[in-house]
Amino acid sequence: MIAAGEWGLLCLALAAGAAAAGAWCAVAGIPEAGMVAAAGAGIDPDRLLLVPGLGGNWPHAVASLLDGVDLVLLRPPSAPSAQARRVLEAALRRHRAVLLVAGDWAGARVRLRVVTREWTGIGSGHGLLRACRIRVVADGRGEWSRPRARWLWLPGSDGEVASGEVASGGEIASRAIAAG
Description:
Elements: E1 2-3, H1 9-20, E2 25-28, H2 35-41, E3 48-51, H3 58-68, E4 71-74, H4 82-95, E5 98-101, E6 110-122, E7 127-140, E8 148-154, E9 162-163, H5 169-178
Parallel strand pairs: 1-5, 1-6, 2-3, 2-4, 4-5
Antiparallel strand pairs: 6-7, 7-8, 8-9
């Protein structure tokens, strides 16, 4: 289970990486997520299930999704109770799927947080946004107990997540130009 902070580009990029490897994905509890945004992030719409509302018994609905797809991107409609966490953790063990939570989740094995965001492509009041460079801090339990931080491009010049570790101001500008 991965908690990826707020809903946004990082969540879509993580799901897109799984989809590129052939995974079937579901986006649950995020009514503003759509096929256009998912396709723009690299998720094949033919391998994506959108479930905008989950209802009152949402942990069991998500457990059912985990039975049918490889990755579920979830924004829980309410703070998960201990019972809800147990239901989903059991489903994860049983089905060997991945639960990617847009938000915080007590006990997540890995937590990702965007701590800095830089947009490129826009000039002095004009231009188009071309790319976003983010600094992500990862921590959690076990091998993730020691925090790690990395810069990433969302998207990189090839449209996928790319390392943004060694970027200077000039390199940021040239990546923005390469992105289109």
